[in-house]
């Protein structure tokens, strides 16, 4: 599963690491590592092995350091903050110190541990949306998906069908498409923010009064056939 | 992610369609326990194991096969793309494969969902195999017996019906892919 987002983490990394500083382009990770050893124990609860996370170990540690820096902005511990400021100053950004000072006085809201996954997911979705915007898809839509299959490198595979269900899970939001292909019903679950999907188009809509259309499995094949 | 995992375990047929109209009227009145009933009624699709009957979707002669053994090391059973050993339960009168024969087959369609590396999952409405070999009954001398290294690549039939998943490429069943009507 991690292989699917091989292309994603570098992009996401750029987005995430640029956010807190907004000025320095070359953030040496050595600075983070040097300033955060003592804070590691206090953040041990923020476990690296989020079961939901698809970004792998590396992204987690880098983002963790980012949050450590942000938490320090909120006047966690004096010497560490001075160390952060000092190190950031060494990068050559005077505006950075002023920004941190202003944030301290404006009382930026703390990021609670429970919000972390939500924020990560939102960021990852933003990154994916930049590459390819995803239309509004609901149960009952008849959609056409153009998929790039690595095995079938010649041309894009096209999947058409009715959306049976939509499971919202951040970056792994999936839709289940059903169609009768060559006489046999086939259901495929697609993660809509996957980089393999080149295009999603909503063809039409069928009025349904359910969120999950599992009843279609028992019904006549005619109801699941789409030209 | 947890939601997707949870939903995977509550797939399958709802049995409400099979109830008669009168009974469904009674069911509607008891809306309190509706949600619990629906979840417990969804079938959990599982592996292909000994006793599973599968359709045969080529023109080798067999029509229906009952699984005797799954050649995968997984003790739970076979999945999409695995080879199974089966006994032919039903066959057409003049075919290459006759009723009662023991055949090897590769599973081309499985009702159990198969995950792919890009995060997608595929499942079919039925279980189907393509016959790739017939088991010989004669006793061979031990040194001649090379059955351990036999690759089941060549389907016995010359046509394959219905859709075939991309998993066949990974399992080196390229002939089946070439014969397929439609690739999923």
Automatic annotation (TrEMBL), chain A:
The reply to whether Ribosomal protein figures as a keyword in the UniProt entry is: yes
Q: Return the protein name.
A: 50S ribosomal protein L19-1, chloroplastic
Q: Which organism is it from?
A: Camelina sativa
What does the similarity note say? Belongs to the bacterial ribosomal protein bL19 family.
Show the GO cellular component annotation of the record. Answer: ribosome
Ordered alphabetically, the record's keywords are: Ribonucleoprotein, Ribosomal protein
Keyword Ribosomal protein found: yes
Source organism superkingdom? Eukaryota
TrEMBL record, chain B:
Query: Gene3D superfamilies attached here?
Result: Ribosomal protein L14
Annotated segments matching region Disordered: 137-164
Q: Does the keyword Lipid metabolism apply?
A: no
* Compositionally skewed regions (Basic and acidic residues) per UniProt: 141-150
**One Pfam family, short name please?**
Ribosomal_L14
Q: Extract the HAMAP family matched here.
A: Ribosomal_uL14 (MF_01367)
Q: Which UniProt keywords apply?
A: Ribonucleoprotein, Ribosomal protein
| Protein's UniProt name | 50S ribosomal protein HLL, mitochondrial-like isoform X1
Please give the superkingdom of this protein's source: Eukaryota
Organism name: Camelina sativa (False flax)
Annotated gene: LOC104740450
Similarity comment: family membership: Belongs to the universal ribosomal protein uL14 family.
């Amino acid at each position: 599963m991690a292989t699917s987002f091989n292309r994603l983490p570098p992009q996401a990394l750029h987005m995430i690491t640029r956010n807190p500083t907004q000025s320095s382009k070359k953030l040496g990770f050595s600075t983070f590592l040097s300033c955060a050893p003592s804070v590691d124990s206090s953040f041990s609860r923020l476990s690296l092995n989020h079961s939901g996370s698809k970004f792998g170990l590396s992204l987690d540690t880098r983002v963790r350091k980012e949050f450590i820096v942000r938490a320090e902005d909120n006047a966690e511990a004096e010497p560490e903050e001075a160390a952060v400021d000092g190190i950031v100053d060494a990068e050559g950004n005077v505006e950075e110190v002023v920004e941190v000072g202003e944030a301290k006085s404006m009382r930026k809201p703390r990021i609670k541990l429970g919000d972390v996954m939500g924020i990560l997911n939102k960021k990852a979705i933003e990154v994916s949306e930049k590459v390819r915007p995803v239309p509004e898809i609901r149960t009952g839509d008849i959609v056409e998906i153009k998929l790039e299959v690595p095995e079938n490198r010649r041309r894009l595979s096209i999947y058409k069908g009715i959306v049976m269900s939509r499971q919202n899970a951040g970056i792994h939001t999936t839709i289940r498409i059903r169609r009768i292909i060559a006489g046999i019903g086939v259901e495929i679950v697609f993660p809509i923010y996957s980089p393999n999907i080149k295009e999603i188009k909503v063809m039409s809509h069928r009025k349904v009064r359910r969120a999950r259309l599992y009843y279609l499995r028992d019904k006549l094949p005619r109801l699941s056939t789409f030209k | 992610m947890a939601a997707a995992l949870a939903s995977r375990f509550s797939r399958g047929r709802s049995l409400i369609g099979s109830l008669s109209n009168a009974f469904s009227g009674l069911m509607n009145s008891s809306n309190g326990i509706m949600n619990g009933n629906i979840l417990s009624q969804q079938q959990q699709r599982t592996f292909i194991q000994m006793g599973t009957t599968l359709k045969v979707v080529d023109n080798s002669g067999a029509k229906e096969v009952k699984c005797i053994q799954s050649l995968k090391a997984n003790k739970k059973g076979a999945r999409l793309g695995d080879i199974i050993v089966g006994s032919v339960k039903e066959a057409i009168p003049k075919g290459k494969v006759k009723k009662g024969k023991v055949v090897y087959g590769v599973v081309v369609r499985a009702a159990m969902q198969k995950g792919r590396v890009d995060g997608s999952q595929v499942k079919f409405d039925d279980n189907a195999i393509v016959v790739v070999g017939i088991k010989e009954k004669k006793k061979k001398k031990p040194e001649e017996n090379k059955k351990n290294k036999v690759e089941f690549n060549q389907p016995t039939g010359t046509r394959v019906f219905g859709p075939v998943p991309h998993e066949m490429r990974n399992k080196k069943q390229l002939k089946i892919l070439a014969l397929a009507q439609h690739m999923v």
